[in-house]
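Each record in this resource describes a single protein on a pair of labelled lines. The shape at a given residue is found from the number at the same position. The record below illustrates this layout:

***
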Amino acid sequence: MRIRYTTSVNGSAVQQAVIYTLDEHRIPIADVDPDALKIIRRLRGTGHSAYIVGGAVRDLLLGKKPKDFDVATDASPSRIRKLFRNSRVIGKRFRLVHIYFHEKIIEVSTFRSETSQGFDNVYGAIEEDVRRRDFTVNALFYCPVEQQLLDYVGGFGDLQSRTLRPLIPLDRIFSEDSVRMIRAVKYAVTGGLGMTGPLRRTIRRSVDLLAGCPSSRMTEEVFKILQSGYTRPIIEELLRYRLLQHVVPQINRELKDKAFRRLFFASLERLDQQRDTEEELKRSRALAYLCCDWFYTRSEHGTLERIPFKEAFAELKHFISPITPANKDVQKTLVQLIRRRKRYRAEGQI
């Protein structure tokens, strides 16, 4: 372990970050996406600093295989674009770069300033960027070239003690972005992390902020949950924190019935088992597990002997609102539900 220092206003040395070596963090380089490693080598080779950041680092430290790898660097978006032909700059306010490898995308962002507001395009240094992360366990920077882990906020220690600690002040963290409440629950469940008492209490006081969340963001969060392999425990926790009423309100209402609740959570258990055996669970199939018990036992059209597709489609869309998947995904979900109704009636599962 090494310490990185900076100088205070009065000229004295102040600890800025802790640097952990391979012997301490034990991240296997074989678990790092080879294309993410290529990006970092290229950026570093042209004089820039670059790190794997966010959830990928958290998952690597927890011994899990990350699904996505994000990179942060001091290079500007235009500079990144010049270095990688297979890239595209996205975003109008805060610009990011997507680097394409066949069907895979690796997102590269430029360090942001502490003075940035919302998604404004204000760049800064790594020391500022780290302070904009939501939780300490997501604020770790990993360099796979040197195999060093940079920790500015005690995130490594929090992971070791299995603690989910907010980095943004509690009076701002959810008012700035209410989706962070869903993510807090998800991180706690998937990482086996315990929330601090103040964080738990703040979530309970802030539940209604989710009512103003854009449907597009809610939709993405729901599908991340459905494809996580931890759908059942996450949904159970969202229900316990009263967050589910804003995520999928129709399901939240149906769960007041004990018989439906038993069927519903059994289906989510099977969904999680499917995720264990499939590399990538399609959205339509995941959505079918979420809706099957309601569709077969509670819906107006799913219980008819001959199901009218157009009317059943509209009813399904209404049931899952405010989440708004692409119509093609909802259509595919409905086709699966219709085809598997006989099996559900015989075996109680799709």
Summary: The first helix runs from residue 22 to 25. The chain has two domains: 2-160, 215-347. The mean pLDDT is 93. The radius of gyration is 22 Å.
